[in-house]
Each structure stands twice: as structure tokens, then as C-alpha cells.
Amino acid sequence: MAVTIAVANQKGGVGKTTTTANLAVTLARHDLRVLVIDTDPQSNLTSSFGLDKAVSPSLADSLLHRDAELPRYRVQDSTDVAIDLVPGTPELAAVESELQTKLGREMRLREHVMRIDNDYDYVLVDTPPSLGVLTLNALVAAQWVIIPTEARFFSLRGLQMLTESIEEVTIVNPNLRVLGIVLNKFDRRLREEKHVAGYLQEQWEAEMFASRIPTNSKILEASSSGLSIFAPGARGRGVRRAVDAYEALAEEVLTRAA
Q1: Interatomic CA distance for residues 101 and 103, integer angstroms
Q2: pLDDT value of residue 250
Q3: Concatenated DSSP letters for 92-140?
Q4: Please, which of 105, 131, 231, 252 could form a disulfide with 78 given CB 3.0 to 4.6 Å?
Q5: 9 contacts 147 by C-beta, under 8 angstroms
Q6: Separation CA 236–CA 217 (nearest Å)
Q7: Counts of helices then strands in the chain (DSSP H, E)
Q8: What Å distances lie between residue 3 and 12, 117, 125, 258, CA to CA?
Q9: Res. 226: pLDDT tops 60
């Protein structure tokens, strides 16, 4: 049975997609069978692995039709590490609206994942920056949540809102727990970020991952170009630090989710 992890934060721009993609590749480099699911209508995770946002069939078809299988595409990063991807498309925005009137609308993704989770060791679900039906589907399907956040004061509200939402989701999914909070795009040179990091450690000590993903423009450039941070062409001193950080994060994930 796969370990299913939703990567979520109700605030946008905190690095959910980048975290999902790089963590998935890092886990696959450990010879684990990994599936990633893109539930965001922006479909950036899908694009980061080289699939067109107009790909068909997609997750939208499976959420609308319970009998439809999850469409799984084998994709490889630029170092030839293979994972499976359930792509998201812009049609997911219309699907979210249509599901509003359906019974059991928040259970659709879980039903599909339960049919295939013996095929994988880990299932990672990227989510939109809102607590709509798509994010609810991800949280109901998951056993764990990873919360990426920035060390900025304006990010704290989004973190608090999500933890409150997770408590509500446990009514439907009592097994849902926070696997960890990861500081993303962390710049240790900035006083504000060091101060917020200290506050987060004080308030959420048990949930905080020790690993912190450093800020580096090359990480975003690699992702938008369909490159892995592990690819030789994507490397530099800053990217090397990011590689080490994701390796450390993957080790923490493997330990906590065991």
C-alpha cells in the first residue's frame, strides 16, 4: 500500500509544485516507485515533467467519471529517473465547479488512488492554492500532508489557515496528519527570514522539518525548463545546496512516514 502525501498550502507562491516535483524525483532516485498527481488547474507540475497542458485523458476525466481509470503517463526527468504522472489540465477549473453538486465529491480522488496504490511506494499530490474541492480531494485521499511555506510574516496566516482546515478534513479522513512543514526558498542572510524561522520552530517544533530548501533562481529555471536539479547542466554551487537539501528532506520523509 502506497504512502500518499498531499503537498498543500492555501497561500500561492510558496513552492508547492517545486517541492512536489523535486521530492518525487529524489524519492525515485532511492529506487522507490513514485506516482505524482497534479490537481492544480494551472498544471505547472504537468508542464515541469514535459507534458502538454492539453494532454488527454487527464485527471479531469477521472474526477468526473468514477469508472474512468486514472491516466498514468511514464515520464523521466533529465537524468532518466522515471516516475508516473497523472496530469492536470486547465479543465480542472470547470471540473471543480461541476463537482460542487455531486454527492461524495471530496471522495473521488481517494476512490481512484485506492485502486492503484499497490503499484507504488509513494503517491505525491500537488494542490491548488485554495481549499476548494480539488484540494479537499487531495487531503481526503492522503494519509499525510507536507506544508511548504516561506519564512515571511505574510506566509504565517496561510499556514494557520491550512492547519485549521486539516482539522476539519479529519471529520472525513480521520487518518490525515501533518508529516511536516518545510521552509522553502529560505534565505538565511535576511533578518526577517531568520526571525520567522525561529518563530515557526517555536510554534510548530514537532512538525518542522530540519531540512530547509535554500532560495536559488536556478531551481525555478530548471523546473520551468523541464530539467531536474540533479541534471549536470542545472548544477552550480546554489543548486548543489538545493540538491543536498532535497536529499535530506527525502530522508526525513522516509523516516517520518515509515
Answers
A1: 7
A2: 97
A3: HHHHHHHHTTSTTGGGHHHHHHHHHGGG-SEEEEE--SS-SHHHHHHHH
A4: 231
A5: yes
A6: 11
A7: 10, 8
A8: 25, 8, 11, 9
A9: no
Helix (H, G, I), strand (E, B) or coil at 175: coil
CA dist 137 and 4 (Å) reads 12
List the one residue out of 148, 184, 140 whose CA is nearest residue 166: 140
Compute the chain's Rg from CA coordinates. Answer: 17
Q: How far apart are CA 159 and CA 162, in angstroms?
A: 5
d(CA 210, CA 45): 25
Where b means 16+ CB within 10 Å and e means fewer, 74-103 reads ebebbeebebbbbbbbebbbebbeebeeee
pLDDT in tens, 239-251: 788 889 999 999 9
How far apart are the C-alpha atoms of 75 and 85, rounded to whole Å? 7
Please give the order of strands across the beta sheet that includes 122-126. 73-76, 82-86, 34-38, 122-126, 3-7, 144-149, 177-186, 208-214
Residue 3 has a CB neighbour count (10 Å cut-off) of 21
Q: Do 144 and 2 form a contact (C-beta atoms < 8 A)?
A: no
Give me the amino acid identity at 191: R
Residue range 127-142, pLDDT digits in tens? 999 889 999 999 999 9
Helix (H, G, I), strand (E, B) or coil at 181: strand
Beta-bridge mates of residue 50? none
- Rounded to whole angstroms, how far apart are CA atoms 159 and 218? 26
Strand partners, 86: 37
How many residues does the structure list for the chain?
A: 258
Rounded distance, CA 58 to CA 51, Å?
Answer: 11
H or E element that contains 79: none
